């Protein structure tokens, strides 16, 4: 049995259907009293109340039973399930970016070196980033790049475009104007790990009992770096004749916002390269997935009498839901029939799909929709 397809409501310790409880209670009362009950009997009113209260108790018992298992636990109970396998929930994380410091070579020549200490703050409005390591500028090396982390946890530090983080709180060196600006988009900030992402890591936790040799172990340790990581693919590079290269491991990482930043990839590399986590003979490479871009161009033929605006809004909503389910997964093929099925909402007679075409996506690739065009045909059909 595939437990991943098991529905929450099917996991029960006791029967909690109200009709079944009511029927059992009535049958028990009639057997004990020798009296056949009619709907208007006063006993039926009392039994109805009793059966309802017992059903609530049974539902609470079943929910308590589900909360013992990581596949169905939520909130604090999920944290307790994680504690059983030494997998705590990830706290809110701060965004990261790379900041380039620079100064005029002539000014640097006068002082020989300009030391920029770790923890130097560079801001964009009210959001500040602190450098993680020290840097030195010289006349021969008038620019240097270092990683910086946002001083506030959460998504507030995400999405600052290159050049926006450029305000130095304090000039590190007197007499020399040092400029600073981010050269990468800040990313990686996230709120506390939600239940679904945490649940996936808990279910992977037994793989971590080994060093990162099994595929599941590499995936577990990669996901544990940051809660923005939503999918991980682990494989071996292949030779020209399709044979896996022994001793080399390739880890592909996808985030909830799409491509991972270089700063996040560095964090994953560091996590997977610790000698206590990987076999000594493994060479691990961490990379972003290869994006396979496609566009959606669909025309909806409607039934006669359908409201085009209403149907078009429903189709766009259906597409958004369909695409959202694929956005955080690697290796999902582009299947026109699936897209047509998603767009065939109430009022749609036919879906004419001009693009995309059928395309098989490799496990380490990511199908990315870059533009959406959905319109309605001028003519309607009776059906």
From TrEMBL:
Transmembrane segments: none annotated. It comes from the Bacteria. InterPro entries: Barrel_Baseplate_J-like, Baseplate_assembly_J_pred, Baseplate_J-like_C, Baseplate_J_M, Phage_Baseplate_Hub. Residues 98-189 form the Baseplate protein J-like barrel domain. It holds the Pfam family Baseplate_J_C. Residues 211-288 form the Baseplate J-like central domain. Residues 294-374 form the Baseplate J-like C-terminal domain. PANTHER family: FELS-2 PROPHAGE PROTEIN. This is Phage baseplate-like protein.
């Amino acid at each position: 049995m595939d437990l991943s397809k098991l529905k929450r409501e099917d996991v029960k310790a006791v029967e909690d259907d109200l009709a079944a409880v009511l029927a059992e209670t009535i049958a028990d009362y009639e057997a004990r009293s020798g009296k056949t009950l009619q709907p208007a009997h006063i006993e039926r009113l009392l039994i109805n109340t009793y059966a309802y209260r017992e059903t609530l108790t049974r539902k609470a018992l079943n929910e308590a039973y589900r909360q013992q298992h990581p596949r169905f636990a939520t909130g604090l109970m999920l944290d307790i399930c994680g504690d059983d396998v030494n997998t705590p929930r990830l706290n809110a994380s701060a965004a990261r970016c790379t900041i380039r410091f620079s100064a005029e070579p002539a000014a640097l020549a006068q002082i020989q070196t300009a030391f920029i200490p770790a923890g130097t703050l560079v801001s964009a409005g009210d959001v500040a980033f602190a450098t993680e390591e020290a840097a030195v500028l010289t006349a021969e090396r008038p620019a240097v790049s270092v990683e910086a982390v946002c001083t506030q946890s959460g998504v507030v530090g995400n999405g600052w475009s290159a050049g926006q983080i450029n305000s130095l709180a304090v000039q590190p060196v007197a007499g020399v104007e040092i400029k600073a600006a981010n050269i990468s988009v800040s990313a990686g900030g996230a709120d506390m790990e939600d239940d679904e992402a945490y649940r996936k890591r808990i279910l992977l936790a037994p793989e971590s009992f080994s060093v990162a040799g099994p595929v599941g172990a590499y995936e577990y340790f990669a996901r544990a770096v940051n809660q923005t990581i939503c999918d991980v693919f682990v494989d071996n590079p292949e030779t020209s004749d399709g044979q896996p290269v022994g001793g080399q491991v390739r880890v592909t990482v996808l985030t909830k916002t799409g491509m991972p930043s270089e700063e996040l990839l560095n964090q994953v590399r560091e996590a997977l390269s610790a000698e206590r986590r990987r076999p000594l003979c493994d060479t691990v490479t961490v990379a972003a997935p290869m994006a396979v871009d496609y566009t959606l161009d669909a025309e909806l033929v409607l039934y006669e009498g359908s409201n085009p605006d209403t149907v078009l809004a429903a189709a766009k909503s259906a597409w958004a839901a369909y695409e959202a389910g694929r956005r955080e997964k690697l290796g999902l093929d582009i299947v026109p029939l699936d897209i047509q099925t998603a767009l065939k909402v109430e009022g749609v007679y036919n879906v004419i799909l001009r693009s995309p075409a059928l395309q098989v996506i490799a496990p380490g690739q990511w199908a990315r929709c870059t533009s959406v065009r959905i319109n309605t045909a001028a003519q309607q059909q009776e059906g």
